[in-house]
Write a structure and sequence with these properties.
signal, single chain, RlpA-like_sf, six-stranded mixed barrel, Barwin-like endoglucanases, mainly beta, 3 helices, 15 strands, Expansin_CellWall, Barwin domain-containing protein
Length: about 300
Amino acid sequence: MIAANLLTLAVAAAGAVAAPLQKRAYSGTATYYAAGLGACGGTNSGSDFIVALNAPTWGTSDGQRSSHCDQQVVITNNKNGNTQTATVVDLCPGCGYGSLDMSTGLFAALNNGNMDDGVFPITWHWAGESAPAPAPAQEKPKPKPTPKETKTKEVASATPTQREAKPTHSASSTSAAAQPQATGSATTVVTTPERWSKVDNTCNFTADEKTLGVAIGPSALLSKDDLWKACGKWIQIENNQNGKSLSVQVVSYLPEAESTFLAIADGYTWLSNVYGDYVEPIKSLTWGFIDGQDI
């Protein structure tokens, strides 16, 4: 997922200039939030062109300021081809890898003033790098509404720990984040997740209080003897029924668990279809480690 820098030097004569850095774009979805005091330490308004960065790209797990703070990103709306430049000022714990949460002004500028969409597919790269080949502009088909199921048993509530500024529309958006790559003999695995009220940090690493954590068991990605290597690593998970995706951090592991075991707490609600107080059970998830991590 995270491509290596490519630097091409053209040495033909005196005064020859190195070619610009070329990097593949990140892919994800755009959502919007109410701008205010950000994790980078500054305060912004909705008219500022700013973004909140997804947690894996943010790069810290202890609440510290990211090295990406105040960096600029060049964002393209894949539906209409609109492009804008924005500044990183905040963290979005609930955003999937490659996704960005935007100020209302930036979201409107990229989407021709249409705020009703709530979400649209994007590609983006860091400013100063040459732009990758643009993705073709196309309208993503809208999913058919899922009929409300009859509630047959009491479902425990789970309150998301994401930023209070996160709007409600983000929990119902369909993510177009890039498919994760994983280490080991497989790249992804499929499982039916368990829903826990809390996933304790048995890995004993310093995690940000906003981090969404998961517990994992042995799978084709890591054997039971190697599960400890996953502590603190980021994985991308996608609900195979509705396409919603989320980036979460491994905070616990169970070597004795059954194959492909995965337990989620607050992130379960974000990935599910929610009808009032009813959280639809997740039947199937695909997940894998986000590439570029040392596992």
